[in-house]
Amino acid sequence: MKRFVGFVQKEFYHIFRDRRSLFILFGMPVAQIMLFGFAITNEINNVDIAILDQSQDTSTKEIISKISASEYFSILQYIKEEAEIEEVFKKGKIKAVLYFEKEFSKKLVKEHSAKVQIVTDATDPNMANTISNYINSILSHYQEEQNRSIMLDYQIIPQSKMVFNMELKSVYMFVPGVMTVILMLVSAMMTSISITREKELGTMEILLVSPLNPFQVIIGKVFPYIFLSIINAAIIVLLSIFVFHVPVNGSLFLLGLESVLFIVTSLALGILISTISATQQTAMMISLMGLMLPVILLSGFIFPISSMPVPLQVISNIVPAKWFIIIVKGIMLKGVGISMVWKETLVLLGMTLLFIGLSVRKYKIRLE
Amino acid sequence: MSIRIDHISKSYGKVNALDDISIQVHQGELFGLIGPDGAGKTTLFRILTTLLLPDQGSASVAGYDIIADFKAIRKQVGYMPGRFSLYQDLTVEENLRFFATIFGTTIAENYDLIRDIYVQIEPFKNRRAGKLSGGMKQKLALSCALIHKPKVLFLDEPTTGVDPVSRKEFWEMLKRLQDKGITILVSTPYMDEAALCDRIALIQDGRILEIDTPKAIVEHYPKPIFDVGAHNTYLLIEKLNAYAHKHSVFPFGEYIHYTDQRDGFDPLELRAYLKKEGLQNIHIERTKATIEDTFMELAKQ
Questions:
Q1: Domain residue spans in chain B?
Q2: B185 Cβ contact list (under 8 Å, min separation 6)
Q3: How far apart are CA A135 and CA A122, in angstroms?
Q4: pLDDT at A283
Q5: By the CB < 8 Å criterion, does A111 face chain B?
Q6: ipTM of this complex prediction, to 2 decimal places
Q7: Residue A71 and residue A62: Cα distance in Å, rounded?
Q8: Using CB atoms, which residue from A5, A207, A211 is nearest to B104?
Q9: Which residues, 6+ apart, have CB-to-CB distance to B181 below 8 Å?
Q10: Which of A30, A305, B124, B221 has an alpha carbon 20 to 30 Å from A244's alpha carbon atom?
Q11: Quick check: B104 contacting A, CB < 8 Å?
């Protein structure tokens, strides 16, 4: 026990005396969550649009005022000619143009139909799609209000409701993802680097020629990172609750337990990486290429798994992060309990045992 | 018997690092492994400290078999690798305390053993190990290897890259440790350090050339050796090598060590030859063989 404490103390010296690793440990989670929360977002907010209104009557004015009253759009300019549309898009600031045909109001009343065209700048296709959906919904809302006074014989009013994230806030999506990336990075990369550092500096040679058995060395190496990763997970959850107002609908305790499980999975992966790499450089490359890329691309963090080609969907099953993200989304956003995520938990547990088993088999008690 | 090495062989691919090595080191002996870089010294150390497995042969350290009882050996020996292998970001004291802890002891418990060495670096105990000079690093590494009172001490080239004064001090320390009953196996590429050992093994290309006391090894040198000097050393070496009866020519300090093929060699004859070849200030004098001469002679065969 004294040996273990001495070893862990030494590890903490290493961590706290190396500014680089300290920065990765504590700067990274905060920077990433802020980045994803504030900057990288696909919500629309105060998008600049232009209006081409050829009728300038009551109806169009009502619609325009409705649009400019919403927080999503701000009307930057009014144009007169159809030919000007291309010109304003080329300047780049305007993302959409709303084009009302002549005698809009009159047609609406007489013919029960009038045309309005939504032209969007599709250089950013997701953005263009979202903008046109938002404008459409404002238009149909307006239409509903008008019809209420007229009363038709029958009508279908589709009511779509987004549950769990009613405001479609992208930060809700990113929090589970960022948490996964950070825990994976800290746990797997940092441990694999710290173990290979001992190999590279030759201190592993001395540790081997000592009464410490390999198991004690590994546990001593891993323990500080379990501790630091739990702190990191807590920082991320607190930031998301208090800065981004992401709700934790499920049990915080369950979320904590699942996080510890995922931390252990990542640590086991880190140990496995350290057994196959001889230098810190290799360990870092394997961690970045072999872990970070799948976590970001194949876990459902950014790109939905259901819209991937089938082979990639199959591959995504072996990415531990995928299962953890499902669990975190379930607990944080849907508020489900263990009865809904036990399958995913079991998969993670199985993977952890597999990684630990492999590392124990691969771990060398000698130099070669 | 403290260390027994029995027909050990080890190869890396096609390279024979060790070829049928057998050595026996007695309890409390200061034994030197003398040979150039790449002779196989480090490989032998790693096999004895249970870090590598031999391809053939067996060995025991402090009575324990290096394969079957490797765990017991790891508790009993002190090992100082050739490369400085302490934690550079830990201070002198933290390093020492760490190694004391993992061996289940404390600095206070075995302070007697390391006192002579540690007092010299104690003024710098709060300095990071990475910021120490070469000589101080070696003293710290030796302190760390000794802190658990090992029965056998393995020192792989402890004085390489260390200044001459520190080297001399280092060997004095080894002598004192030997007095405390610790068996020491030390390797070095420096022939002058070999004379300080009780017994030495000359090793080259993974083979043992000879094992004996430094004195006996020098006495066994088969031929009379002459110091030869002249005004132009470069020309001298060239002319000596061109001499029909030469056996060996080695630069040694300010002189050239020369041996002749013939038993009844007359230095005057060589002097006449060198004079004829245009060398001046010729100096020829009988001298004693050194370990280096023996090594070169044995390595030639």
A1: 3-218, 221-300
A2: B3, B25, B31, B33, B45, B48, B152, B153, B154, B155
A3: 15
A4: 92
A5: no
A6: 0.85
A7: 16
A8: A211
A9: B27, B28
A10: A305
A11: yes
Class of domain B3-218: alpha beta
Distances in Å between the alpha carbon of A173 and those of A1, A234, A331, B35?
43, 18, 13, 66
Task: Write out the H or E segment, with its range, that includes residue A42.
Answer: none
Q: How confident is the model at residue B263 (pLDDT cuts 50, 70, 90)?
A: confident
Start-end of H helices in chain A? 2-17, 19-22, 28-34, 58-69, 84-91, 104-110, 125-150, 170-184, 190-201, 203-208, 214-242, 252-276, 280-285, 293-297, 310-316, 320-329, 338-362
Q: Which residues contact B204 (CB under 8 A, 6 or more apart)?
A: B35, B36, B39, B295, B298, B299
Closest-CA distance of chain B to residue A26, Å:
20
Chain A: give the shortest CA distance to residue B223, in Å: 44
> Is pLDDT of A158 > 80?
no
What is the model's pLDDT at position A1?
80
Both structure tokens of A61: 């004015």
Give me the sign of the Cα torsion angle A71, A76, A81, A87. Answer: negative
CA distance A261 to A345: 8
CB A312 within 8 A of CB A298: yes
Query: Among all chains, which residue has been given the structure tokens 């090598």?
Result: B241
Structural tokens at position A196: 């290979």
The pair of three-digit structure tokens given for residue B272, joined into one six-digit string: 């006449």
Q: Could you say which of A6, A366, A368 has the minimum Cβ distance to residue B101?
A: A6
Q: Which CATH architecture has domain B221-300?
A: 2-Layer Sandwich (3.30)
